[in-house]
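Predict structure. Chain length: 201.
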Amino acid sequence: MIKNLIFDFGKVLVCYDFPVFLKTIIDDEEECRRFEALVCSEEFVSRCDLGKDSFIDIIRECQEKYPHWKNQLQEYYDRQLDVVTVEMPGMRDLLTRLKANGYRLYGLTNWSNVVYDVIEKFDILNMMDDRLISSEELLIKPDVAIYDRMCEKFGLIKEECLFTDDRQANIDGARAAGMPAVLFTDARQYEEDLKRLKISL
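Prediction complete.
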């Protein structure tokens, strides 16, 4: 029986758009694509989310390696809140109904330490009963260990949890850890998944 609902943050509870944001930093289209290839690469994002190196230290390292982007990298760091734009449509109402029906809500996100600025800005993230942040645990999805840590930290039974994320790799990681999971596309689809799984709304 599902008692706990676990949510990724980005593109599940809040929306972000890196390509649009990066165009406000670099006007030239080709140069912007090259910059995006750096700051949106799996290696760069994973390092920031993992937390073994601080976000600002990673930026400083990149500034030394790419001095022609020194100012742009600083602006990218300083304006992180501008990346996240709005709450995911329909999710606040859905979370409110789930909480009213007695389900416990948890966040499980890959994010650097700037996530707390996002949490402060977007109150939907404070609807969680608790949360686990990758950069604090030095673990990232889809590593099975982060789902294990989630359950250990909050005393959860995996079979009583339902995890949702917009990335299939993270869904696969949860399932490999023994945790039921559904891929998120939008609030309507998620609600249909909940109904299919006999979760009361």
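Summary: The longest strand covers residues 104-109.
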